[in-house]
Amino acid sequence: MQPPQHVFDPFAGVSTTLLVARECGLDATGIEVMPMGEIIWRAKSQLERYDVPELRAIREWIYSTTPGESQRRFPHLPITQYAFDREQEAQLMWYDERFQQMDIGDNFKALLKFILLSIREDISYTSKDGQFLRWDSRSGKVRQRNAKRIANGKMPYKPFHKRTILPVQRAILQALDHIILDVSFPASSTGVNGKQELIVGSVLDAPAARAGLGRCRDYVSALLQSVRLYQNLCLGVGFPRCRPTSHAQPQTKSVELYRGEQI
Ligand SMILES: C[S@@+](CC[C@H](N)C(=O)[O-])C[C@H]1O[C@@H](n2cnc3c(N)ncnc32)[C@H](O)[C@@H]1O
Questions:
Q1: Which of 252, 259, 256 shows the shortest CA–CA distance to 235?
Q2: CA of residue 152 to ligand 1 center, whole Å
Q3: Are 52 and 183 within 8 A, CB to CB?
Q4: What is the b/e burial string over 151-177, where b = at least 16 CB atoms within 10 angstroms of the residue's CB?
Q5: Which residue, of 3, 29, 39, 55, is most buried by count of CB atoms within 10 Å of its CB?
């Protein structure tokens, strides 16, 4: 691809596509449904704006300050309940508060938020195993389940002990050290950075799709052409099994949405 072509990633995730596009000097638009995608994108897309001495000063503060504990509750999802030791969780929230109060630029605050997000597994009782999470036997979740099993006359779960659970302060320092190293030796790039935009929302919802696709007219016409081609093929003689029945209508909702916008 060559500028002025525009990269569109409707499932932007952790923004790898957007960031590579930028490195290549291409403008890019992404849509991501997970709000944390935006935190990650904000932190990564400002890489060249991090000043190494300022990062070192932040590191020094973290290193020399004993962490406190916040009274604020961690915003748990059902899957994260009991993922952290109580003290670790209170410290994580404490750092979150302190970082946002620090007298530093918004790009540094975004970076520190990103770090707090990225260390969650390191400081938790969980361990990613493929698509699954393994839970350390010391976690409240496993202990409660085991108690129930024993009360019902069953054997407890096979014990699992995560090898290392990092203290929050150490995990933050470790992540920050990696970043300082990365920022100190930036990867080579074209030197011409493309413009970037990340829309937080579902690509299936009208506002996000409209905003994203509106910037990528060529992409939309290509998409529409392929959808039309696909529909013609499915409705045609060659693919009788794909022919819609009264209960299986073709999925044209999104196509209608874009057509409605007259792109
Ligand atoms: C495999 S990741 C994409 C990786 C990304 N393309 C990159 O370059 O790093 C897929 C992403 O699609 C997001 N996603 C799933 N359904 C979505 C939707 N309806 N609208 C927007 N994003 C969605 C998921 O949250 C996930 O982060």
A1: 252
A2: 42
A3: yes
A4: eeeeeeeeeeebeebbebbebbbebbe
A5: 29
Q: What is the pLDDT of residues 50-76, one digit of tens each?
A: 899 999 999 999 999 999 999 999 999
Name the residue at shortest CA distance from atom 20 of ligand 1.
202
**Nearest atom of ligand 1 to the alpha carbon of 204:** 19
DSSP state of 241: G
Q: Is the pLDDT of residue 123 over 50?
A: yes
- Residue identified by tokens 């300050």 is 65
Q: DSSP letter for 105, please.
A: -
Q: Check if 257 has its Cβ closer than 6 Å to any atom of ligand 1.
A: no
Closest by Cα among 62, 47, 176, 60 to 107: 47
Structure tokens at 160: 């699992």
Beta strands in 193-233 (DSSP E): 196-200
**Other CB atoms closer than 10 Å to residue 132's CB: what's the count?**
9
What pLDDT sits at residue 261? 36
pTM: 0.75
- Which of 33, 38, 45, 117 is the best mutation target for the ligand 1 pocket, counting ligand atoms within 8 Å of the beta carbon and taking the most? 33
pLDDT tens by residue, 211-241: 666 666 655 555 555 556 555 555 544 333 3
